[in-house]
Amino acid sequence: YGYQDFPDGTNEVAALKKILNDAWEDDIIYLSNQDMSANPKVDQWSNGNEPAAELNRMMQVRRAALDRFGERAIKTGMPLATMEEVLVPLYMHHRFQVTAAASALGGMHYIYGMRGDGRVPVRPVPASEQNAALAALLATLDPEELAVPKSVLDKMPPRPPGYRRTRELFPRYTGLMFDAISPATVAADHTVSEILNASRAARMVEQNALNASIPGLDAVLNRLIDGTFGIQTSNGYHSEISRAIERVVVDRMIGLAGRATMPQVRSITSYRLEALGRQLIQRTGDTSELAHCQALARDITRFLEQPGDAVAPPVTLAAPPGAPIGQPAMNWLQALEPACSLLEW
């Protein structure tokens, strides 16, 4: 459009308009990084035209790779502990697609419309797309999907001298030893924090008020709780991962109920927390299960009685860095930028 040369006698205005019309027909629209959280057509480091379907596919690829993962991932003669450097990006293979799929929740299909262009400038993401996205996101919270393969756990010793820990590795509670639970906590927190983004939650409330077929915040919270609490597991490891996921959900719900700027978001989330607390008190199980449920119930009660004192989660595990390209790392280029580029024209 900006550099097109037309033959003599061409109606340039009409020809330029045709270029734009052809672009619209091909669904080529101008949007930028600022639109990532609200428009599912705008993604970074993700593939596919359907975020939910692509997330499901990525989870299948991730599972196949994890099932095959082992010491062959590193060179012969390297410390076995360095398998973790390869495991991290594989285990978190789905992280960017989680962000992409979550943008459909409370999302909007929109363009930077112009007066007179005759196009629909904004419309909510259809209920079917939002429900598919939520289902795909909840599937990433399956304890079996978040378990580190036993073949890896059995061959992951502490790191030897000279191979210090870096931010590219999983955080851990276990000191020198590889933590089998913290990767699940990190991955679950990424998914849950995307679902319970405060601005996204506010859009859920508004969209459901305008169109009852679109899932509102209450429905999303119900599905999140139903999909993560009281899950039947096949062994103790999966049970402990399930408890870690439940802890993430409660902490994130408390954070949303305490920090969201929209009053409706705070009230709906607090209501669901209170109901969840009553359910937790009635749960049965072994000592680990009862201790876990009672701790969650106490934290919920503490927040509801003194919300200002119990907003921040007690412990957070930071995920290893994600995006391969980031603005902060490029700040050194500002010294080479001409001063005139900083002016507002």
TrEMBL record:
Residues of the EcxA zinc-binding domain: 1-229
Coiled-coil annotated residue ranges, if any: none
Protein name: EcxA zinc-binding domain-containing protein
Protein species of origin: marine metagenome
